[in-house]
Amino acid sequence: MSSRDNKYNKLIDEKSPYLLQHSNNPVDWYPWGKEAFNKAKKEKKPIFLSIGYSTCHWCHVMAHESFEDNEVAKLLNNNFVCIKVDREERPDIDKIYMNVCQMITGRGGWPLTIIMTPDKEPFFAATYIPKETRYGIKGLLTLIPEIKNLWQNKSDILIKSAKEITTTLQKISKSSIKQELSNKNLDFTYEELFNSYDELFAGFGNRPKFPTPHNLLFLLRYFKRTGNNFSLKMVINTLEKMKQGGIYDHIGFGFHRYSTDREWILPHFEKMLYDQALLIIAYTEAYQATKKPIFKKTVYEIIEYILRDMTSEEGGFYSAEDADSEGKEGKFYTWDYDEIRKILNSEEFNIIEKLYNIKKEGNFSPEAETKENKNIFFQTISTEDFSKFYHISIKELLDKLEKIRIKLFNARKKRIHPEKDDKILTDWNGLMIAALSRAALVFNEKIYADRAEKASNFIIKNMMKKNGELLHRYRNKEAKITGYADDYAFIIFGLIELYHVTFNNYYLKISLDLNNYLINHFWDILNGGLYFTSDKAEKLITRTKEVYDGAIPSANSITMYNLIRLARITGNIEFEEKARQIGISFFNEISKIPSGYTQIMVNLDYLIGPSYEIVIVGDKDSKETKKILHSINSFYIPNKVVILKEPNSKDPLIEKISPFIKDYSQIKNNATIYVCRNNQCQFPTTSIDKMMEMIN
Fold first, then answer.
1. Cα separation, 64 vs 428, whole angstroms
2. Residues 479-524: pLDDT tens digits?
3. In a 10 Å sphere around its CB, with 0-12 CB exposed, 13-18 middle and 19+ buried, how is residue 188 labelled?
4. Are 309 and 412 in contact (CB under 8 A)?
5. Euclidean distance between CA atoms 665 and 642, whole angstroms
6. What is the 8-class DSSP label of residue 474?
7. CATH code of domain 612-695
8. Rg of the Cα trace of the chain?
9. The CATH number, out of the four listed (3.40.720.10, 3.40.30.10, 3.40.50.300, 2.30.30.40), of the domain defined by the range 10-171
10. Distance between first and last Cα of the chain
């Protein structure tokens, strides 16, 4: 039953927190759907499409400035049918119209503003638009009357322009060159990252700086492949600088979305689930490669934040936390000098003041809204160096810092918190399932595996139909929206990782079922690769294919990785051929700027090898088997799969999934290891030392 009355527009019946934020605007917003488009056709009005998300700071700014303003609302309502879209619920719509914006303006971002015909064909694109004209940017009060005039008097020109833009858009995903990726692409990727590396502050480029963990995962593999120490140095320095910087929440843990400056000091304060997941994986792999304690500590802290603040009772993970509280970006996370002094004793304050650069006048750039004598916690030296300089043992210092952190955390907890976007997205949950599983495996933390299992079972129960189709979004007991390629790719990724820590064959079966559905309904039979939307999804003005690895790796990139691993687990070479086809299909795009496709390069590193298939025949809970697994997981060996065959198990599923292991048996009733390297299998062994010689 509708809860709508005169105070609300048609967004009030939606589940998206972002759409609900706009449900009491004077703008007569519609959700994306037939009702809005039928109204536009009937009234012969253009569509004003606004796309954003609930934790987007500039989306809030435009909403408060314009969409809550009666004068702007009257102009919009009289001249357009207005549609609001949550980009996290409908990334298919967002990707199409973001491509339009980048084509027309040369840039993109959110809020995304599109004006289009009732047939969904765009003729105007922008990002944030102010209410009044300023700094050379036309405001809505000027722009809307101009578009009204054009629509009334020259609509034929606008419609023709819209059709031309749409035709150009439909040609974008057609790659012309089909060629195999090679070792040279790995070298070119390294060279591009090397050239963009910031030797002074680490990371890549100047400002803003994003974490982009898949860059680091590639560099770790490049180090493993070539022994190039600078490749490893870039990873270590970047992870350390990010952890020390203001981009990291030193009080409550977790990473903010990006740094607005080169030094990693002033973040954009929103926290995204996907960033936490991908960074858990990066810090975990870096720990395997280096054994640096700070990397392990960082993983534990991020997971503490996720389990404390971002996990639903049912087991799914929430999407994000806002940058703003009480109308100001970062207010929840920044501190007055005197406020900290009141909370801590003098010894504690002296430590914090020096280590985290706390100043009476504030410690960050005046570019931010919250600049009035405020402080962000950030380090310019490592905790280890600080302990040496002030002649305090690292253990004693860490103990003191934890007591201080708890005091500050409890004080901060009393503040008004940023809004939490509590929708549960299948794709981002897949990434967190993978991250928790990987951390559970490396650090032998059962609770992490338990939480990954709970989340997986939640998704399977609530967001997977009997025919294998996934749904994208869950909120308030409602699962809705046809799943995208990301949903399948990332959940399959998570389930394969979960198998490796639980050896529950059920998760492998589900991953194979989902992979089958993905290939059947998303694969481009003519040109190869995956479309972003299913052949059963709503038909939009074009059907996009994504391969660029931006803040999140693309569905094609992760699917390529999944296919390689499933091929090695099952012995089905068709999976590996499909993985190769993804690389071939997008060769044209990838070869131009390979550093924009670092997850693809991770996959290429796997395909080229060396890579390993390890089968253990032993009881899952036996000391022997656990010792073997501990030895494997202690080292950085990224390109591998591990299969467990329990000799006394009555479950035949693993032999159906991996038929080549049917005749594998134990040697003298001892846990036995079978290792294959680059398609060449070695003699089985019961010796961990011999196994390690084979794989390391």
1. 29
2. 999 999 999 999 999 999 999 999 999 999 999 999 999 999 999 9
3. middle
4. no
5. 16
6. E
7. 3.40.30
8. 26
9. 3.40.30.10
10. 62
